[in-house]
Amino acid sequence: MSPKKAPLYILLLLILAGEAVFILPFVLARVFRPTVLEVFGLDNLQLGLCFSVYGVVAMFSYLLGGPLADRFLPRKLIAIALWLTASGGLLYAAFPNLLVLQILYAYWGFTTIFLFWAPMIKATRMWGGAASQGKAFGFLDGGRGLVGAILGSIGVLVFSMLMSKEGVINLHDTRIAFRVVIYVSSAIVALVGVLVWFFLKLEHYSESDARIDKINMSQIGEVMRLPSVWLLMLIILCAYVGYKVTDIFSLYASDVMLFDQLESARVGTFLLYVRPLVGVLVGLLADRSRTTLWLTIGFVIAFAGAMLYVSGIVTHSATLLFAFSTLIVASGVYAVRCLYFAVMEKGKIPLHLTGTSVGLVSLVGYTPDVFAGPLIGYLLELSPGVTGHQHVFVVLAAFALIGFGASWFYAHKYR
Hints:
Blueprint lengths: L7 H13 L2 H9 L1 H8 L3 H28 L2 H19 L5 H14 L5 H12 L4 H31 L7 H29 L17 H8 L2 H19 L3 H7 L5 H28 L2 H20 L8 H21 L14 H12 L2 H15 L3 H28 L2
Helix pairs in contact: 1-7, 1-8, 1-9, 2-3, 2-8, 4-6, 4-7, 4-16, 4-17, 5-6, 5-7, 5-9, 7-8, 7-16, 8-9, 8-13, 8-15, 11-15, 11-16, 11-17, 11-18, 12-13, 13-14, 13-15, 14-15, 14-18, 17-18
């Protein structure tokens, strides 16, 4: 496949699908975290356990779904994943109890990963070709951030319009408003699935060596012998811990900065607008220099931002410092996130084994889906207020240091 012949609309569809599939399980909880805790009657640890259940199912889905992406073309796999995920929104809008909510997150762990994740990454790598991996993955993650920002803004707008009808805000009114947000989100996810089904036709320009005719264990063995795969596991693990920590910024705004629910939701939406700017900028810079260099720089920036929060100087009287510190952390985390799959080409991972490689790398790299939610929730509940948040950012700083070391070694080895 020549990247010059790859239509731009293919990447746009991948961007739409790549963020839409995670709206229900993650984006709504990130933007509306205080509201989610209230309407479902949860504390931070219980919500973290829901994410953990999702992560456990996702681990198996990464491993099994990776080889599937090397055997079948992505259009149908991605579309079905979107429709199945959207159907879960009907149960989500009923505000089930904790047990049912955990079952729902287990279901989402399957629908968003098994049929979706590896096909999306492989299709993006194919679109970028050998020369534009930074641009392909930078635009993918940045574009996903923009889509998330727009959808988050729509959600906040719908929520605020419905909430403003009553002078006194109570749980019943909040649930009615948030239910509409869930329904609108589910409809959007389903619609994106329709667009993917009819228009994401990679078959017309995919190379014959981008697929395998049969799935077997030798492919896993071949991938496991690649040093780049093991390094990517560690890099993604550290980067994803940082990404999970960004979930608490709206809660920090509520608990420490003393913002109300609507203002806290706007903080979450602000983060979504940072992501596309960072993704596009870093993606372009990476293709003009070295993707591995910018991967390393991203970890340094994330560490610096985390230390601002650890220092305790970000208090309710320092609104501008809160905005600045949030911007620093988000920039570092999003820079790393948009580049870690872009270095697969430099790591000499064969195109026809991309799905299998993504599955194995993700099996370890995305384990924060299992432990980060409960860990963050435990730290926040153990030490309420600013102290608990400081402890969370200590965790971020530690993983950023480890990620810096792994990415530096990757850059050195594949210079």
